[in-house]
Amino acid sequence: MTKTPTTLEEPAEPRPIASPLTRLGEARWILITVFCAAMVAVAFYGVPFSAVLVMMAVLGVVTGLVPRRASSRRVKLNAQREIRRMWPGTGMKLTVDALPTPCIVADGRGITRYVNKQAHATYEGVKPGDPLSFSLRAPSLLEAFDRVCTTGEAERINWIEKVPTETWYEAHIAPIYMPGSAGQDRGPGLPDFILVVIQDQTENRRLERMRTDFVANASHELRTPLASLTGFIETLQGPARNDPEAQDRFLAIMLDQAGRMRRLIDDILSLSRIELKAHVRPAGLVDLSEIIRHTADAMSPVAADLGVEIRVEIQNVPVRIKGDRDELIQVTENLIENALKYGHQGKFVDIGLSEPSGDPEERAWQLSVRDYGEGIPPEHLPRLTERFYRVDVESSRAMKGTGLGLAIVKHILTRHRGRLEVESEPGKGATFKVTLPAIENAAGIPDQTSV
Ligand code: ADP
Fold first, then answer.
1. 234: which of 291, 337, 398, 407 is 20 to 30 A away, CA to CA?
2. Is the shortest distance between the CB of 396 and ligand 1 below 6 Å?
3. Residue 302 Cα, ligand 1 centroid: separation in angstroms?
4. Whose CA is nearest to atom 19 of ligand 1?
5. 409: CA distance to ligand 1 center in Å?
C-alpha cells in the first residue's frame, strides 16, 4: 500500500503570518485617504498638524500589528466548503472523461459524485448522488474503498467476477485532498474525495494463461520424443548392442522421433516469428491466384502418395492483394496439407477463390479448401485454431502433425486483416474458408491487374 495523495491544484501552503510592513502595504490606500482628509481638516478647520501626525502614527501601529479579522478566515472556510460541495469541477470531469477506463469520483461518505463515460457504459446503474455500493457490488472493492476513506492511503486491488462470464478486474483507489482543506471536516489526513479507476484485466490474464499453457504444452510435446530417443539410445548401448536387426529397427524409429522434434521446433519458431510482427500489416503486393496454384502444384506429390486429386477451380487471372508471399504460401500449404492428411478418404480436394462482394470497405477475396473426408464434429470447431489443439491426437501424430498448423494460419491471417472460418458436417468433409481484404482501384472495382 502506498500513500499517494491526489490533488487537482497545487496544494495551498498554510498562509504565512503577514509582517507589519505587509499589512501596512495592504492598507495603504485607506491610510492615504485618511491622511488626505486629515490635511483638509488642518487647512480649513484649524486642526493642529501634530494631532494629525499622532493619529496617523496610532493608525499605522494598529494596522501593522493587529492580525486579520477572524471573520475573513470564516469566509474562506465557507468558500472551501462550497467548492467541496460543488466538486468535482469541470477540469476534473473533462480529465476523468478522457481516461480510457471506467472512473468514478466519490466523496468520503461513499456517495458517487461523478462518473465518466466509460463507467456509465460498463456499470449502467451508477449515478451521481447514489451510494457507490448501489452499483458496485464487489465486496473486496467496497472494503478497499472504506479502508482508503479511513486511512487516506491509496490501494490497488484485484477481484474476479464469475457471472455472466469469468472476468478479472483491477481497481486503483486513490484519495484526493482539496487544496488546503485536508481533514478539516473529517479529522486529520482524511481524504475529501476518492477516485476509483477500474480496469478489465480479462484479456491480459487470458494472454498470460495462454503463454504459460503454451510453454507447458510445448515442453510436454518435446519431452515425449526426447524420452523415446533416450530410451532407444540406452537400449542400443545395452541389450541391443550386438543385435543388428534390432538396431536397424530402433534407428528408424529414432529418426522418426527426431523428425517430430524438428517439426515441432520449426512450428514453434514460425509461430513466434509471426507473433513478433503481428501488429505490422504487410505492405507488399502479391498475386493470390499464383500463390494458390504454386502451392497446389507443390503439394501434388503428397496428394498422389495419398491417392487424392487436387482440383483447383480458379480463373487464370492475377488477383492482387496486400500480403506477404511466404506467409500466404504457408496458409494455403497448411490448409491443403490438412485436407490431404485428414480427408484423403474423400479422394478429392477442391480449391476455389470467390470474387469480393458486399460493402466496399469490407470487400474481400474468399479462398476455400474443401475435402470430402470424415469431417470435424461441431464441438471441436471453435477450438481448432488453439495451439496444440487436435481432434484426435493419435491420428495427428500419425500424420506428422504438431497441432500448431491452424494456430499459425490464424496468426498470419490476423496480420493480413483476414479471417478463417470452418464448416464441417461429420462424414461429409470439411471446408476451410480464408477471407482476405481486396484492394480497390479508383473505380472501386476489386483489382485483378497483374502484379
Ligand atoms: P496438426 O498439425 O495436428 O494437423 P492443425 O492445427 O493443422 O494441427 O490442425 C488441428 C486439428 O484440426 C488436427 O489435428 C485435426 O484433428 C483437425 N483438422 C484440421 N484440418 C482438418 C480437416 N481438413 N479435416 C478433419 N480434421 C481436420
1. 398
2. yes
3. 16
4. 338
5. 12
What pLDDT, on the 0 to 100 scale, is given for residue 434?
Answer: 97
Nearest to 137 by CA among 154, 120, 125, 155: 125
Report pLDDT for 332. 97
Q: What is the 343 CA–ligand 1 centroid distance (Å)? A: 10
Q: What is the pLDDT of residues 79-123, one digit of tens each?
A: 667 666 667 778 888 888 888 899 999 988 889 999 998 898 888
Q: How far is 304 from 2, CA to CA, in rounded Å?
A: 69
pLDDT of residue 72: 61
Identify the pLDDT of residue 80.
67
First to last CA, the chain: 61
Counting other chains too, the contacts that 225-234 makes at CB distance below 8 Å and 24 or more residues apart are 225/257, 225/258, 225/260, 225/261, 225/264, 226/261, 228/253, 228/254, 228/257, 229/254, 229/257, 229/258, 229/261, 232/257
Alpha carbons 406 and 384: distance in angstroms, whole number: 7
- pTM of the predicted model as reported, rounded to 2 decimal places: 0.64
d(CA 220, CA 403): 13
What's the confidence (pLDDT) of residue 74?
A: 67
The residue with cell 500500500 is: 1
Counting ligand 1 atoms within 8 A of each CB, the residue from 260, 330, 338 with the most, and so the one to mutate, is: 338
* Rounded-to-integer distance, Cα 351 and Cα 314, Å: 8
| pLDDT < 50 regions, the chain | 1-14, 182-184, 442-445, 450-451
Expressed in angstroms and rounded, the spacing between residue 374 Cα and the centre of ligand 1 is: 12
